[in-house]
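#lab-general

N.A. 3:47 PM
ok so I finally got the sequence cleaned up, no stray characters, all 127 residues accounted for. can someone with queue access submit it? mine expired

B.Y. 3:52 PM
send it over

N.A. 3:53 PM
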Amino acid sequence: MKATLYSIILAGVGAICLSSCSAHEDYDAYVNDLKKQTAVIDTISSPASYAAYIDSIAVKAEAFEQLGVKLAPEQKEELAALSMQIQQALTEKYDQLSKQPAIEGAVFEASMPVGPVDEATGVVSLD
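B.Y. 4:20 PM
back already:
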């Protein structure tokens, strides 16, 4: 009986340790990913890619939140600092993108007359 009770207690302690290790690994992976984000933000080159990035970072944050990892005060401070760095990089990138001239649609010159629309494919041919 005592052996069974000890086995159950050991299994419970083992499960707690495993979940704690998993939470620690999840936190470390999330922090490492956040640390790389300023370099990722530097690669954004258009308003469309900026919007896609905002969506992707929101999905990552939501996924981490859904894990339910309990954070120590130091971990919360680290996440807040990383968040501020990312926000600063995003603000700078937004300012940079807002100064770029808007790209308009393709301009066809007289040297590139447009032919009729192919009804089967819907493609406009150039003559």
